[in-house]
Every structure is written in structure tokens, then in C-alpha cells.
Amino acid sequence: MMYSSRRKPVLYFTKEDSRSGLLLRMLPRRCSIFKLFCTFIILGFFTVMWLQYNCRINSSRRSNDDASVHKSCQEETDDPAWGPHKIAIVVPFRERFEELLSFVPYMHTFLNKKKIRHKILVINQVDHFRFNRASLINVGFLESGNDTDYLAMHDVDLLPQNDQLDYGYPEKGPFHVASPELHPLYHYKNYVGGILLLTKQHFELCNGMSNRFWGWGREDDEFYRRITAAGLQLYRPTGIITGYKTFRHIHDPAWRRRDQKRVSGQKQEQFKVDKEGGLKNLKYKVGSRTELTIGGVHCTIINILLECDLDETPWCVIN
């Protein structure tokens, strides 16, 4: 009987081929290239599905976290301890972004501690006229919405340091939070600037503030006369023992100089009472409205373009 001397081929693997050899040993004996290709396709498919599943889980967690942060910023709650009223913090503003970064989160925390519903409106003057604080406050009143029933005329550079200060609904009359006995700079009797709370009804009764004051100062002195003429009684804090340390004034006069120039007939006008001007003759345009989050706190930036009658108030520009 004849035997063939041919032997079946044997595969030998070197150390360098150990990994590929292991893979081949794991495969069935009868494994074609097509079957190997199909195996990799199936593995790739399940890998992609697993990655998509994990991405969806992570995305859902992030959206839930964002929603909870947004809700905490708005502080809309049904807790009766917060009361039925909501204040619009109206901030007349121009080029004070460093101060705004401190103001928004600080005031949000301060008002939350006192359980006061609030929203912060930054009325940003973007036209080329001189700064008009009173007109911007008028705009803030008109743009504050129906979800608020009182407002705070609030300077961006004045932060309350005493938790006993009252920011509640001023039902009896205008409440001057930054009273002359407490304000770090201004101490005269008729001063009503800095921080003043009014119900919307009382602000309308005063016909808002005069629009004739371009540049810095005097508009709040004229508004004091409006409060008196409307028959309203002005209230101020009592029992505050922190004196001139009740507020922190974060304005840097060397870096942010105020526009105190008096031009044309402005010197004579600054002490007059504007009996007709106010909400009724305010003219402005809303350039844009932006919802902004600063330090996790929501606020609304409203870019405003005021209009000026050069025949009535030529001092709205400086030649």
C-alpha cells in the first residue's frame, strides 16, 4: 500500500503574530472573509447604539440641571411665605458692566433671603445722547410687564449690606431705601435717589419722572417735588443702626467719571419743576431685548434709544 508523503499545511505563529493568532483561534474553523466582515459590522452597530444611549442619558441630565438652575434664578414658587407681590428692579444703565457683574447675583441673593419675588431689568441706553437716568426709569416702568406690581428705581453701584432693609411692597407710599441718614454720599433732606420703591399706581400718579434731565444729577430732586405734588407721603427705614455703612458703593469715580457738565440753558432748567413732562411725552425705541445669565442669575437687558427734541432740551448733546 502506498502512502502519500504530503502533509496537511500547518500554521505557525511567531511572538509578533500572537495577537492576530489569538483572534484567528477564536474564530470558527470554517470562517470566510465575508463572515468575518459581517461580524465586525454587527459589533460596530452595537457599539454605536451603546454610545448614542449614553449620550442621551448625559444630555438629559444636563438639561434637567439647566432647568433647575433656571427655575432657581426666576424663583417662581407657590410658597405663601413669599407673598403675592413681585418687584421689578429697574436699573438705568450705560457702560457699567463691571458693576453689573457684581450687582445682579448680589441682589438676587439678597432678595431671595427676604423671600421677595423679583425680576431684574437693565435699561441700557445705546443712543448717542447724554445719559438720561429719569427717562430710562420711565422706560423700565413701561417695559416691566404685567407680572410685577411695584418697582425699585435702583442704581447699579449701590449694594445693600443690612438684611433689615425693607424691599417689600410699599402700599402706603414711596419708600426711600437709600435714605439720607444711610446713603454713603448724599445726606440732604430732599434726597430720594439711589434706591426708591414705588407701587405702579403711585408712579403713574406722579406721571413718572421728567425727561428733561440729560447728564448726571438733579432728576431725583425734581421727582421729590412730584411726590409731594401728588399728595403722597414719603417713607424711609427706621431702626437701622449701621449708618453710612448700610450700603456698599462700588462706583470708582476715577475710572467712571460722571457727566456733570451744565451747557446751554441747563443751569437754569435744573431747578425748575416739569409739570407736564414724564410718561406722557416719553419717546424711545427698543433696539433689542436680551435674556442674560450672570453668575447663574437671570436678568433682562433692554437696549434703548431715546429721542431728544433739540429745541426743547438742546443740552442732550455736548457740542
Write the topology of this structure.
Layout: H1 18-26, H2 33-74, E1 86-93, H3 97-113, E2 117-125, H4 133-142, E3 150-154, E4 158-160, E5 175-176, E6 195-199, H5 200-205, H6 219-229, E7 247-249, H7 266-269, E8 284-294, E9 297-306
Physical arrangement of strands within the biggest beta sheet: 5-6-3-1-2-9-8
Low-pLDDT runs: 1-5, 10-16, 66-74
Could you tell me the mean pLDDT?
A: 84
Distinct helical segment count: 7
- Biggest beta sheet attributes: 7 strands, mixed
Number of strands: 9
What proportion of the residues is helical, as a percent range? 25-40%
Rg over alpha carbons? 34 Å
Sheet-strand content, in percent, reads: 15-25%
For the terminal residues, how far apart are their CA atoms? 124 Å
Order of helices and strands: HHEHEHEEEEHHEHEE
Determine the structural class based on helices, strands and strand pairing.
alpha/beta
* Outline: elongated
Describe the structure.
The protein is of the alpha/beta class and 319 residues long. It is 31% helix and 18% strand. The chain is built from seven helices and nine strands; from the N terminus they run ααβαβαββββααβαββ. It has helices spanning 18-26, 33-74, 97-113, 133-142, 200-205, 219-229, 266-269, and strands at residues 86-93, 117-125, 150-154, 158-160, 175-176, 195-199, 247-249, 284-294, 297-306. The N and C termini lie far apart (124 Å). Residues 1-5, 10-16 and 66-74 have low confidence and may be disordered.
